[in-house]
């Protein structure tokens, strides 16, 4: 049943990524579907995204309280935290250059920058400088090189980085999600002048997708009765996706076989324990591609048995540019250290 519950919550989180659109003449839902398909087929693009944690409230954890580090202190550290991502993507040969910056505000503001490069078989990560955890001199300024194929073998799986297969999986899941939601209930068109687009962003059409307190009961019914059974079928037909998600096919087959028995419990869980205050995304589209997106999510989880509560709120915006233009990447780093070498310098056993 835990697998079914995770899938229910995961489906809701996936919805936060559905923001796209297309030409002026298309209805909002059709515009979104067409643009999502075209955007996932892009040979290259640049992306800049900002994510801010607006609210975080977690239930108390006895172990943490006993150790002298109460949950309230932890959540306070992350309140108003932001993540900034700048990335350049190319499909063939597959490569993603990304720089992530984490900012923890407060009396002692902390910024952590993590540059990363990912190819079909390698991942390069430059560890951040952390004041309380200084890097060994041998690693400063160097990338940690991780062989993804070797790592997969150590974990008993196979490396599956087929861009075409991944693209088809994303398209199939996106189509399933969008097909399931009623246009009049969830989709609307926004005037470009009222969309709050950043300076320089031009759009042919702006589309909004929104889950509200009013339509949330219908949303739960749609997810449990329509979306998740179809998602199960898609994943069961995709061995690569199962390996990437580290999910056993037998577990999904069992979940599908028990669906009618377990879905009532999942319905009750999503309807009574989870409250969606806001889940809305707005996407701006130019030439059938998504060029800008923004949104806000606010949720509450209440455990009736324990009385514990949790709250989560986040806002985000992102801009895409140079869609379809071949990027100019710098040469891959050669002065690197392996993950085993880094762990050894920190005194941890090799291979962890």
UniProtKB/TrEMBL annotation:
Keyword Coiled coil listed: yes
Coiled-coil residue windows: 238-269
Extent of the signal sequence: 1-25
Keyword Signal: yes
Tree of life domain: Bacteria
Keywords in alphabetical order: Coiled coil, Signal
Identification of the protein by name: Lipoprotein
């Amino acid at each position: 049943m835990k697998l079914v519950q995770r899938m229910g919550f995961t489906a809701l989180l996936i919805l936060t990524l559905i923001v796209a659109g297309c030409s002026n003449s298309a209805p909002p839902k059709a515009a979104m579907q067409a643009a999502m398909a075209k955007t996932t087929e892009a040979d290259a693009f640049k992306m800049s995204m900002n994510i801010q944690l607006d609210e975080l409230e977690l239930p108390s954890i006895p172990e943490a309280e006993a150790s002298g580090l109460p949950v309230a202190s932890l959540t306070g550290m992350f309140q108003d935290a932001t993540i900034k991502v700048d990335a350049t993507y190319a499909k063939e040969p597959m490569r993603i250059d990304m720089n992530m910056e984490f900012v923890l505000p407060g009396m002692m503001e902390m910024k952590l920058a993590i540059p990363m490069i990912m190819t079909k078989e390698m991942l390069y990560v430059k560890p951040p400088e952390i004041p309380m955890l200084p890097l060994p001199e041998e690693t400063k300024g160097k990338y940690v090189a991780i062989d993804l194929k070797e790592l997969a073998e150590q974990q008993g799986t196979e490396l599956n980085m087929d861009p075409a297969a991944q693209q088809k999986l994303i398209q199939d899941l996106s189509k399933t999600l969008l097909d399931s939601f009623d246009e009049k209930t969830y989709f609307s068109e926004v005037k470009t002048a009222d969309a709050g687009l950043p300076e320089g962003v031009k759009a042919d059409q702006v589309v909004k997708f929104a889950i509200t307190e009013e339509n949330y009961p219908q949303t739960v019914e749609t997810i449990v009765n329509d979306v998740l059974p179809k998602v199960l079928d898609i994943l069961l037909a995709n061995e690569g996706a199962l390996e990437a998600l580290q999910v056993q096919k037998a577990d999904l087959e069992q979940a599908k076989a028990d669906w009618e028995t377990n879905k009532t419990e999942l319905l009750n869980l999503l309807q009574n324990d989870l409250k969606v205050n806001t889940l809305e995304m707005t996407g701006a589209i130019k030439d059938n591609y998504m060029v800008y997106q923004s949104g806000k999510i606010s949720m509450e989880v209440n455990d009736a048995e324990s009385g514990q509560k949790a709250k989560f709120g986040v806002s985000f915006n992102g801009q895409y540019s140079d869609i379809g233009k071949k990027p100019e990447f710098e040469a891959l780093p050669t002065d690197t250290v392996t993950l085993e070498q880094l762990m050894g310098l920190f005194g941890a056993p090799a291979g962890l």
